[in-house]
Amino acid sequence: MKKSKKFLLFTLISATALIAAACGNEDSNSSASASESGEQNSWERIEESGKLVVGTEGLYFPVTYFDETTKELTGFDVEVVRAIGDKLGLEVEFKTMEFDGLLPALRNGQIDIAANDFSITEERLEKFDFTVPVKHSYGSAIVRENDDSGITTVDDLAGKKVGGAATSNYSDYAKEQGAEVVVYTGSDTVLPEIVQGRVDATLNDYLVLIQALEQFDKPGLKLAENVKFSPNSSGLVMQKDSPELKEQLDAALTELIEDGTVTEISLEFLGADVTKPVEVE
Q: In angstroms, rounded to a whole number, what is the distance separating the alpha carbons of residues 203 and 181?
């Protein structure tokens, strides 16, 4: 009987040890996976591969879009990233996807950075790292020309329908002002909807809106010049805790700002120098 009890005790201890060992292996594997995941965005891996994989929408004129003539991807953010690639001696590979899928793709390691006029906000900084600012601007709105869509100041957004991307900070701002956000992908889809009265406005960077109106080139819309809000800065986004990558991107981008390259690109695509902070009265 004593031998049976001793055997049973030995069996329980052995089983417990095996379970503990299994859990330990699982934790180790999880740690290894986490380490490998973090490594996917390390500067060392990017430098070794010689390639920087960049996520962008390709539908956000004039920041990231396909040229109608050449059918090539271009735009302010696109050309800034290409200049950074040249500076760092890297091939740049763009992956186009919907705006709302960019940050999830970044988290999952499908891309190294996201370039799509991402405003640097406290909420985003909790989850991601940003480069030094590549663009400074402020928010405004496009409204109907004949009646201003009933929007002449920011306060008038309450109760209005505003078209925009689901996860855009401009959509968040519209909701904060009491507007209803109707989700659209790309300015080319939302602008005709404003003319038709299905939505009242779209909010975005005022420089982007000016260029969007020029590209739209049809009557019925205008910039709401007295609607000015949220001075902001935008940058390129990378996974959180990517110090080596951030250091390399910041150094290259700072050189491009100082030597006038970013100014030249912004004048071409945005019609203004966006390298200096702005103030809104």
A: 10
Q: How many residues does the chain have?
A: 281
Q: Candidates 2.160.10.10, 3.40.250.10, 3.40.190.10, 1.20.1050.40; correct CATH number of 137-231?
A: 3.40.190.10
CA 271 – CA 209 distance, rounded (Å): 12
pLDDT in tens, 101-156: 999 999 999 999 999 999 999 999 999 999 999 999 999 999 999 999 999 999 99
The answer to whether the CB of 60 falls within 8 A of the CB of 117 is: yes
Cα–Cα separations (whole angstroms), residue 264 to 23, 50, 79, 220, 261: 57, 26, 11, 31, 5
| Choices 3.40.50.720, 3.20.20.10, 3.40.190.10, 2.10.109.10: CATH for 43-136+234-268 | 3.40.190.10
231-258 pLDDT, tens digit per residue, is: 999 999 999 999 999 999 999 999 999 9
What's the pTM? Answer: 0.77
* Calpha distance 71→178 (Å, rounded): 39
From the list 60, 136, 39, the residue with the least C-alpha distance to 102 is: 60
Are residues 280 and 76 in contact, defined by beta-carbon separation less than 8 angstroms? no
